[in-house]
Fold this sequence. Notes:
The chain is mainly beta. The chain has no helices and eleven strands. Strand 9 (91-99) and strand 10 (106-109) form a beta hairpin. It is elongated, with a radius of gyration of 14 Å. The mean pLDDT is 97.
Amino acid sequence: QVRLVESEGGLVQTGGSLTLSCTLSGGTFSNNPTEWYRQAPGKQREVVAQTSSTGQSTYHDSVKGRFTASRDNVKNMVVLQMDNLKPEDTAVYSCKVSVANRFRPIEYWGQGTQVTVSS
């Protein structure tokens, strides 16, 4: 049975750091990119980072230089390292991964976790 478990977020002060991770069990990543999303209250969900199968990541302009996304294709884990956090980073964060399947990859979402940055 495929399962994707996301780590807990938390409360952090402005300028602090937090690491989120998602671990897949019962399956393996496909070659499709993995992604991190966030949704703040009253706002649309946005892509924070996208990581290719080879480990190359692209970022939303608002987090460039502060966030680092990575993936481990052996451990089937994705990580989002968030540094120099700002109050505007407060949101529910979710990972999305693509799992290899006999016919076509299937997307799985983490359960979402709250990240709150206090000023």
